Amino acid sequence: MILVILGSLLTQPTAAAITSSPTGTVYEQRQIHSPDGIGKYYMGREIAKVMGHTGAGWLERPSRETEEQPNQVVNLLNLQPDDVVADIGAGTGYLSFRIAPLLSSGKVLAVDIQPEMLEIIDFFKQEKNISNVEPILATITNPNLPLASVDLVLMVDAYHEFEYPQEVMQAIVKALKPGGRVVLVEYRGENPFIMIKKLHKMTQKQVRQEMQAVGLVWHETKNLLPQQHLMVFEKQAEVTKY
């Protein structure tokens, strides 16, 4: 899972020198950009830097219970006992281990690009004696999920740091069962008084634009969390033509 970083609002870059980009790419690279980003832009949004595994302790901080209300997040997912849930950017498994006990005949696929995070998940699996959390090592372009195997994909404070968001989301759509859901939890970019750096927040408009680009359909947005919105998208079932 990728960390949203508390701090002052982002200082805007003073220039927008743009480097040439390969023909047909959906990304734009800028030489001058925010110090909190990687200089790579997708649909007008700069991609934020990834938090490394050395920040794992921050993901498990006690104050996160009140700041993000993870149990409320889980309640809002409307899980079924046999669901297969992919927690993308799972980090230490902070959400994965809250979801797993609710899936009596299902499981959680805890996906992360950092092997060190998956080692932590393996440690917690033994410590918590939870067997239905399966760590999966992803790449920056592919979550490595089986085709048409997942009921729900969850991304909590993670999507804004994907280096290749379109490629990852295309793979996620393929991994979803027909009618499967994608849930993104992101700090509300519309609210300047939420003291999270700008690149670690997303507006609902931006998220909907990026999900639409890979064929996902917006279903609803729930604003029941203190500072984040929970946005639900669906993969449409294919219509068979005779």
What features would you describe in this structure?
The model is unreliable at 1-23 (pLDDT under 50). A hairpin with a 5-residue loop joins strand 10 (217-222) and strand 11 (228-234). Strands 4, 5, 6, 7, 8, 9, 10 and 11 form an 8-stranded mixed β-sheet that branches. A 3-stranded antiparallel β-sheet has the order 1-2-3, with no helix packed on it. The relative contact order is 0.17. The radius of gyration is 18 Å and the shape is globular. It is 22% helix and 26% strand. It has a single domain (27-234), classed as Rossmann fold (3-Layer(aba) Sandwich). With 242 residues, it is an alpha/beta fold.
Features:
single chain; 242 residues; alpha/beta; Rossmann fold; 8-stranded mixed β-sheet; 11 strands; disordered N terminus
CATH architecture: 3-Layer(aba) Sandwich
**Main beta sheet, described?**
8 strands, mixed
Summarize model confidence as the mean pLDDT: 88
Low-confidence stretches: 1-23
Reconstruct the topology from this structure.
Layout: E1 27-29, E2 37-42, E3 45-48, H1 56-59, H2 64-68, H3 70-76, E4 84-88, H4 96-99, E5 107-112, H5 115-128, E6 133-137, E7 150-156, H6 165-175, E8 176-188, E9 201-202, H7 204-212, E10 217-222, E11 228-234
Parallel strand pairs: 4-5, 4-7, 5-6, 7-8, 8-9
Antiparallel strand pairs: 1-2, 2-3, 8-11, 10-11
Q: Nutshell version of this structure?
A:
This protein is α/β, with parallel strands linked by helices and 242 residues long.
